[in-house]
Amino acid sequence: MKIAIASGKGGTGKTTLSTNLASYLSEKETVVLTDVDVEEPNSGLFIKGELVYEEDKFKMVPQWVEDKCTFCGICQKVCNFHAVIQLGKMIMVFPQLCHGCYACSELCPESALPMIPKKMGILRYYKNHQLHFTESRLDIGEEQAVPLIRQTKDYINNTFSEDAIRIYDSPPGTSCPVIEATKDTDFIILVTEPTPFGLHDLQLAVETMKELKKQFGVVINRDGIGNSNVTDYCKAENIPLLAKIPNDRRIAELYSQGKLIYKDIPEFRQELDKIIAYIKTLKINRQA
Amino acid sequence: MKEIVVISGKGGTGKTSLTASFAYLGGKDVIVADCDVDAADMHLLLEPDFEEQEDFYSGELAYIIQDQCIRCGKCLEVCRFGAIKNLFNTYQVDPLACEGCGYCARICPTNAIINKKPVAGKWFISNIKTGSIMVHAKLGIGADNSGKLVAKVKNEAKEIAEDEFKDFVIVDGSPGIGCPVVSSLSGASFVLMVTEPSVSGLHDLKRLYELIKKFGLKAGCIINKSDINQQITDEIETFLKEENILHIANLPYNEDFTKAMTVGQTIIEFSNGNLKKQITSAWEIIKNELK
Q1: Interface touch B12/A145, C-beta < 8 Å
Q2: Do A11 and B228 count as a contact with CB atoms less than 8 A apart?
């Protein structure tokens, strides 16, 4: 079972839900939590564990070998991302722009652009009893989150058993990083706020999930502020509303300190129970 | 003309509400650019009329002409993105996985693959209730190249500002530190970081500022919801001092942010209390800094 926790709008409570849900679930079963919001990974601020493994992550980019180059111009011509530019008697490579398609490297008739690894970030795996937590962080200045998200998911798929429940704390938005984070998951929980911004960005996220043909449900965070339009929208669109987390200053304060909420606030734990109950029905349906 | 870019690293810190408030305070002098093209919300506060709109084309998508395909499978071999699938001996492109590098089309022996330029979004020029103009956009679902759409919106806003002799362009950026953020930072006169005193807020602020330093840009910071955690507010203030970042204001937690948004107003229109005063003086500080 792979669950992604996502949202259109940032700051709606993805990390709060991911870390609390994973930690609470891990009291009874094995859970694999992964932070794939590689630009600003925050789950690690809430999950304490023992560092088991870390590794630098690389993407492959071309490197110019001057001696072999005949300045035929093919590399520049085949690069759709302007990552390889010919300037007089020099080939310049811009690794931040490179998508790693290998076209310049493999189509170079002189093999003058071999692909070499370039560090883009770091992956760390922590363990706390039955909770396995992995995060990847993108190096500052690296622009592309997608290759790191992809490699992080590969690591999870190769390292952990399929039996454990997997939770992915996803990046905000609706563009390529979100697609990469959610595309191979079984179910997506969209976290939103009951406000006009929350509703607007939820609608975008719902469109995205429909485009990906994904099953999804909604959790309203900070219920009580704003208005009822998000609830009305979910009803009208037949979207399962899994839980409503109350607007409570104590939650904001615990969060601000990097503490898990469910341990101190029973109302919050009840909402997690509702989400878990829903997830479990999904599991049964899938096996049936 | 000065360009102010408002960003936050972490989402949900009140960036858009503050940007809209500054736009309201600046009135006719401020051209607005909503560069959070992934989840643009500024239009919910500033009543744009969508006067002009244009499709935004970016990147390419491979498309296989089945009649010309000889099923050699070379495209699948070279694709590093797993975007070409072979289903019942028919090769197909998964448009969400295709990054548009064009490699497959270049090596196809029968020229059965063409590159289409898909509509990646729309952008708009609107008159807004502040008496000024806003440039904004909507990114297509799952579309790549949001960085390019950000650049488009920003450059369009700057051109308008220059043509009409406006003092400021104010840019609402997106969360994170990746390509849309890098794109919104380029050419900024001043970066306003909006943060909150939580472990995440501080963590994300530090990463964001590291990026801003790489660009050598002048920055200031507003700590929103500053009374949620006094200890971290103190830590943020120390960080600002150490890094020589202009500390503009501390705004206490206030539900007027949400209430104003619920009725489609900026905080300046909605609130009469202290919050309005504090945001107004923050705007004065920013303007002074840019003189």
Answers
A1: no
A2: no
